[in-house]
Amino acid sequence: PSQRVQFILGTEVDEQHTPCNLFTEMDEICVKGGEDAKWNETARWLKFEEDVEDGGERWSKPYVATLSSQSFSELRSFITNGTVLLDVCANSMEEIAGTVGTASLWEQPSSARCCALHSQLEPSLDMILGQQEQSEEFDEDTRAKVQEVLLRKHEHQKKRNCLLPGFCLFADVSKKQLNVHQPAQTLRSHPSPSTAEAKRGANHEPSSVELSKAELRFMEKTAGDEASNVLVGELDFLRKPIMAFVRLTPAVLLSGLTEVPVPTRFLFVLLGPEGKAQQYHEIGRFMATLMTDEVFHEVAYKAKERADLVAGIDEFLEQVTVLPPGMWDPSIRIQPPTNIPSQEKRKVPGALGDSGSHRKPEERGGPELEPTGRLFGGLISDVKRKAPWFWSDFRDGLSLQCLASFLFLYCACMSPVITFGGLLGEATDGHISVMESLLGVSITGMVFSLFAGQPLTILGSTVLVFEKDLYKFCKDYSLSYLSLRACIGLWTTFFCVVLVATDASCSVRYITRFTEEAFASLVCFIFIYEALEKLSHLHKTYPVDRHSQLDLLTTSYCKCEAPAQPSHETLHFWESNKINVSGIAWENLTVTECQYLHGEFQGPACGSHGPYVPNVFFWCCILFFSTFLLLGFLKKFKTSRYFSTRVRSTVSNFAVLLTIVVMVFIDFWMGIPSPKLHVPQKFKPTRADRGWLINPIGPNPWWTVLAAIIPALPCTILIFMDQQITAVIVNRREHKLKKSCGYHLDLLVVAVMLGVCSVMGLPWFITATILSITHVNSLKVESDCSAPGEPPKFLGIREQRVTGLMSFVLVGCSVFLTSLLKFIPMPVLYGIFLDMGVSSLGGMQFFDRLKLFAMPVKHQPDFTYLRHVPLRKVHLFTAIQLLCLVLLWAIKTTRAAIIFPLLVLALVFVRKATDFCFSKQELSFLDDLMPEGKKKKWEDATVEAQEE
Predict the structure, then answer these.
(1) pTM reported for the whole predicted model
(2) Strand 154-155 to strand 39-45: parallel, antiparallel, or no bridges (unpaired)?
(3) Which of 172, 288, 846, 858 could cross-link 517 (Cys pair, CB 3.0–4.6 Å)?
(4) What transmembrane ranges does the database entry give (predicted)?
């Protein structure tokens, strides 16, 4: 049957038989003793089953349907021997009821098969009516009763009033009392003189259907969807079951038949004598579940005869998993899975026999990574690929999600830039400090966001150790630091342009997951370490008063005194401001006045910068960890069960901003003087003896221009590797990017701006791995209208240039926002760094494999690579990766950090060496395969040709 199904799915069909998403509804009726019964909705399916609970006031949670094998055999026999009407053209329920009225009848079951609902097919209703004199089991009155039952009013599950708009997913169309005989061409009911309609409770007054906002919103989500109606019931006047499967062509909008006003495509009717309602119910559930199956649902659309439907049912049975009766209670509702498996293998011939252990390894690469063999050929190709998307990059940025992402980026960029600028100012005696950092990151970030091939990448500061060593070297040999630095930067720009011209970025094909995750993990751990280190550093500024002697509390004091040995800077300040030191009453000065006059604090109650204030460090710890926990909670709020989807999504998108606002208000309310974010208030160079343009030669000897080539080489390697590894991580296949990428263009923009920053005496800025990963995660787009119980589908990333551009524009304008930024506590920003580092570790295969070392085999997750790779090989691969990470960390945090770029480059060669320890099949599960040489590819192609 699977081969026939695959043949059916492969056939081309017209527009009328193109499969659509289906909304399946099951209604049941029970007619006993002449009661005026109605069709009652009992279950519905969009992807998973939902039942009306026994109380009748609410829907059950969506769950995976569990079906009995007996229902399968009954349904298959009904489809095999019953009435199957394909491509019926009808405009109302009356016409359909008339068609079903000619359905086939079934004899009563024999005593040998008392549990069955069928035996042999009897003549059709018309034939029975023609033989009315010989048989009185089904007369004209019975036929009229069946049609009258099919035309009765459908009462759907009533919805309770919603507390907030948007809480109701489905509309209660039935309460509008729509006419069940309404034609498909209009949504307006028409009066009819028929008395039978009055008995059925139809509305005779013409009235327009008014849809609520919730209904209209659902209609927008289900645009193009069709309905499958399952009608089952027991009738006391029937002696034998009636079954019909009807496919309407085209689909018809039968108002009142379904819970939501969508056109009906399929109709399954099963009516039988009383006493077997539960069996009819289970058969109806099986039919409805079949219609939600991805493969059978497509077969139902394309079937040309009864045998095609039977083949679809048989193929469904082949894929069914059977549970032993003594091991599982069918009344237990199975929760929908987090990840729904793909059914594509069922549609492709020969795919079902592939267990996955012999999959063909896929190599990395694409058209953007193919060498062109021309000078600047890769760059030209990047520009051609990205140019058509340029204007859409701005249109796609006009969304609430982008606003939240841009505000988050601003907060995430400000603190490291200011911290880095402060550290750089201390290392270079103010030649490059906070103001230069703000200007540099703003200019570089705006240009990169406008012209880069991958604007989702975010730039950040780096090479602090290099700047320290270079300044110390210049100071020792009496060289101009800014001039020599400008030469090094210009040489680095030149080498990067040469790499762009020679398509060197194509070598990123050799950067596999091994290198990506080792480098990304290093940056994550650095973020976590530096966040904790900055918090602990506050202990020095705001020490904890331990083992205090309370008896001496009355003798504690802190007063201001003139400095015993004033520094040169202090003397210059006094002289330039004409301050008479001897005439100052130092002991009467306030803390602010004492600090302004460069006084010193003396006394047992003094701290580092004035009188000791208790509780500051502990309050900083509370702010730090509270920020981390609150931010994590708000980011996960999107998957919580409270409030509507829109509210949860908005809270999650603005998690960073909400966290900062909440913590600022708490800090302001407590009144404890925690350290705050400090931003320069004037736009001017930090030192008065330098300008915004630097002469590359300046006072230095001419040979320094050539000597600058030596330090420029490791800088080039660092910039190239950092840029390309981050770009590979951002451009991963699982991010589902649609607007291509531009490795060559990215490197060119970074190189040009590095030269500009060198000439202007600004810090260098290259790609920031963690900021880029977090930026991408903040722009993930998921489906809005997933079926109940089905997790939202990941659709891709909102690719645009607005978030990066606006965040760097705001960073440049921060000088004018000091009145607001001065309220943000620094521990809050440190907590955000900690969250960025921890959250970026999630989803890394390396981190998952690392946890396997401390996990017993029986408790290990069911990862794919654990199925096909021996555990000792998995541990060996992880140990190699961990050793590389430890070496990178050791070099990065020592004075040998100058050779760090060479070690990053060495990761590629370490990964290549693993080919001797692992097979290609094992590496295809643990990592990505590295590209082979042309000769190797030619040899493989020759061998395959010979085998064929």
Answers:
(1) 0.69
(2) parallel
(3) 846
(4) 403-425, 437-459, 479-502, 514-532, 616-634, 654-672, 702-721, 742-766, 802-821, 828-847, 898-914
| Vertex 463 angle, CA 461 and 464, to 5° | 90
Other Cβ atoms closer than 10 A to 798? 19
| CA angle 800–805–809, rounded 5-degree value | 160
Bridge-partner residues for 601, per DSSP?
A: 560
CB 247 within 8 A of CB 88: yes
Nearest to 233, CA basis, from 442, 76, 499, 27: 27
Q: Where in the chain is the domain with CATH 3.40.930.10?
A: 2-340
CA distance 929 to 100: 59
Label residue 710 exposed, middle or buried (CB < 10 Å: 0-12, 13-18, 19+): exposed
Contact in structure between 180 and 151 (CB atoms under 8 Å):
yes
Q: What is the CATH number of domain 2-340?
A: 3.40.930.10
CB-based contact 491:758 (threshold 8 Å): no
Distance separating alpha carbons of residues 35 and 11, to the nearest angstrom = 48
Quote the tokens at residue 927.
Answer: 């990592």
In three-state secondary structure terms, 352 is coil
What is the block-wise mean pLDDT of the chain (948 residues), using blocks of 10 residues? 76 79 88 76 87 78 86 87 83 69 42 33 34 47 78 72 40 37 36 38 39 55 77 84 86 83 88 86 91 87 88 87 80 80 72 50 60 81 86 86 83 76 73 81 89 86 73 80 86 90 80 80 82 84 70 71 79 80 79 80 70 79 91 83 77 82 88 78 73 79 84 85 83 82 88 89 83 84 70 81 88 78 82 82 81 84 83 88 86 71 79 83 75 48 51
- Here the tokens at position 547 are 């083992």
